[in-house]
Model the fold of this input.
Amino acid sequence: MASTNPGVAVPTIYDVAQLARVSPATVSRVINERGNVDAGMAQRVQEAITALGYRPNSLARSLRRQMAPVWTLIISDIENPHFTSLIRGVEDAAQAIDHSVVLCNADEDLTKERRYIEVAIAERAAGVVISPASDRHSSVDPLLASGIPVVTIDRRLRNSPVSAVLVDNTSGAQCATAHLLESGYSRVACITGPMRTSTAVQRLGGYRRALKRAGAPYDPRLVRVSDYKEAGGYEATGTLLAADERPDALFVLNSLMTMGALRCIADAGVRIPDQMGVVGFDDHLWAQLLRPTLSTVAQPTYDLGRTAAQLLIEQAESPDTAPRTVTLATELLVRESSVRTAAPR
Amino acid sequence: MASTNPGVAVPTIYDVAQLARVSPATVSRVINERGNVDAGMAQRVQEAITALGYRPNSLARSLRRQMAPVWTLIISDIENPHFTSLIRGVEDAAQAIDHSVVLCNADEDLTKERRYIEVAIAERAAGVVISPASDRHSSVDPLLASGIPVVTIDRRLRNSPVSAVLVDNTSGAQCATAHLLESGYSRVACITGPMRTSTAVQRLGGYRRALKRAGAPYDPRLVRVSDYKEAGGYEATGTLLAADERPDALFVLNSLMTMGALRCIADAGVRIPDQMGVVGFDDHLWAQLLRPTLSTVAQPTYDLGRTAAQLLIEQAESPDTAPRTVTLATELLVRESSVRTAAPR
DNA sequence: GTGAAAGCGCTAACAC
DNA sequence: GTGTTAGCGCTTTCAC
Done:
């Protein structure tokens, strides 16, 4: 029915100009509210626009302006709920300045990541926000070479001079670990994510620092490197529970793995918090619905996105400013899963 | 440092042509793998592309082709985890055919929705996937008039002839309600979402149908219309618990409200499942971590997105095909929260 | 099989 | 203040 309109051409700025008896330039001025246009003329233009149902072609506009009002948001794993409200933070900021957000799921895959960066360049994006799959492969260099503002989010890059928005992973992890030690747990295990991500490196660093400060030995047998996914958390926890000297507490470095860990602990019939203290990174609504309620390290995810957008705007306005790193605070939320109620075992 | 390169112009297809000593048309043919190009020439072109670091300007390409390889995905609430894997389903499909996804959060707001639709038209999007904020205001009409393929997802529109991908909300809700009744609960309450959404209408319909089939009376005092948000679920549950004749079971029509309901029930010290049976719409990983584990109606969210993408591709290929509605099955997952272990009270 | 040239729709000099 | 015009970078007839 109302599908394609074969004969009816989409009206252009020339059609509007003709109908309003002005030049295309004037129409353009009216649309973009640039320059002074006679009120009567502007009126006629508006009427012509309405009459024709004219909508500016932003492809043509962007081509002419050499820049599309688009931010490319490259996320390492969309399905990770941590990124959901971060995305929203970026999206809200984009909307405020009439930019669109192109969402790209790199899936922790460097090849996909690189392809999306190519797309961003090809589309002449106004900026790119990226949570890099790896802290070494600075796949963002082509962006810098193209003069496209870049901000890394959640994770940082080692060798590229780009702005970054991070949370204080080290201190978050340190607090969590210290808290477990102070609660009387002595063998605190840690399940970390891929060591090519700065978050895993920093959080593990915080864990180690807390051990050191507490005078506790660092025991590599209590550490499992996993993949930031639920199944990975389950499996890693399984090997910890099966180990000769079982840990009495567990610090899990993201929420998906935490869910896996909790599932495994439940399957094994181990009681939280008495037989096993647990703290997870990332806070979510369900954390307080669990019994015992789950202690977490909360991150300001929405602000992470919003701040990234700010840095992007900053850079677009003054491209020669040096890159900036903004670090947002984390907060340890102590709930029941990390506080013993009785003696262990 | 490597920020904008003021002097260095971005290479165009003409630069490549010049260096490879061929015409721009030939370069275009090589890039797009169209037409037959002499192998030697193609070789030279490839080398020139590499040498110059040339990347096609997709703005120019799309302008010329009158169409951007972009799908606009308008979601009514990004923060609702239900939509996360749906987004991923669309994104994966888009990636497979080299399309980008522009993510728009309409926030259940018709004005925002309409604005995003304008953007989609202005950008000459290749297609739009939308979960409409309202089933009446068919803000998609301008899209149809522009000949842009549209698919609604999760929700349907009443008066617009567009393809849709839905889940079988009615039967999902009916199963859940019937299950609660069969488990021996007699006063089954229901917390629904905004009645301008087809999901709320259909699920409430399923609830009523189950009551009818079981010979149970429909009591409006057991129904609360809320907003699909956590706080809304909390509040609605509060009013139900405060009512004269308290319900003994609760069916909540999405997961955010379910979390609110569970929090309220916990705060009130009401025991699940003995004093209150609970089933929630939408399954998530945390549902099985709760104690008691939470019964849910699971939806194939990823497939919802993937199917929407398929319909979009279908329509793009044959625009004159009549719109199609695909309904995917839901599944009732019976866990502990809806099965009594002892007598109530 | 290859090239020349027009033009997609818009904006921004520039001239008036 | 307004109009004329060139051109953003690409694809695609059309001619050879």
The first strand of chain B starts at residue 68 and ends at 75.
